[in-house]
Amino acid sequence: xxxxxxxxxxxxxxxxxxxxxxxxxxxxxxxxxxxxxxxxxxxxxxxxxxxxxxxxxxxxxxxxxxxxxxxxxxxxxxxxxxxxxxxxxxxxxxxxxxxxxxxxxxxxxxxxxxxxxxxxxxxxxxxxxxxxxxxxxxxxxxxxxxxxxxxxxxxxxxxxxxxxxxxxxxxxxxxxxxxxxxxxxxxxxxxxxxxxxxxxxxxxxxxxxxxxxxxxxxxxxxxxxxxxxxxxxxxxxxxxxxxxxxxxxxxxxxxxxxxxxxxxxxxxxxxxxxxxxxxxxxxxxxxxxxxxxxxxxxxxxxxxxxxxxxxxxxxxxxxxxxxxxxxxxxxxxxxx
Length: 336
Description:
Layout: H1 2-12, H2 18-35, H3 39-52, H4 65-70, H5 73-83, H6 99-110, E1 134-139, E2 145-153, H7 162-174, H8 179-187, E3 194-200, E4 205-214, H9 218-234, H10 239-255, H11 260-272, H12 279-289, H13 292-302, E5 309-314, H14 316-324, E6 329-332
Parallel strand pairs: 1-5, 1-6
Antiparallel strand pairs: 2-4, 2-5, 3-4
């Protein structure tokens, strides 16, 4: 009851104190100034930009330093007045509370909350169409390592192939003993780690692979990822790969949902992404039913080496020529 009373006060009577706004903005800018200079951040930022264009997924949740600098306290007040409304909200309880008690607390604390006028309408820009394979090289002169990102647009959790994508992702690049990590790290010694697979969000999904390597081995690593993509498309998972991956997904599913916070997170995912109440059961059933042929069919449908975005953050003077033997290269400067 006390928690609901405090939350309702925050929701219905926000004050946005100037000193707290300034403090939060300073902390965020400090963190961004540090992270935005790292090669991984630079590569991820360019990958988002190239993949999603003007769509919001091209931006990070925090924005860049220039975005945060441009914010004022009044911007927050205006956003809250427009978007923080009961007809655009969901209240989730998870824990030792009955439905009757939850409804009573909601009525007592939030019953007076009203939205004024019509709900705001937001139109999202289209996600750019997939282009022919190209390498976008973010030039970092003097860099001793290169960050590498591969990807293309995928699908959301509503796609009937989503469960199969979890299995294919697992043995391709979702675990330490996955094909991608085993080849690039263990067999060839080109990196300390590599990962990849299908990811899904509310409005879109993507297939992505990522790693890093020393500057001289950049082109070799990029070519090795291409080789693993071909292997994913045409080499079905072994019985061990398939069974180990499916077992891990199903066993870890239970272990990851032992707290009220985890249950609330699941409920929020279902609500925000418009998923049915049987979503998780259907997903686990789908994983269990996935065959080796399902995985290769999915890979052949969704992964075309002729339509792949590759972003490399590294020393262009050292690696551009070798990368051009793999695919056309466009050199860009890091965004300040």
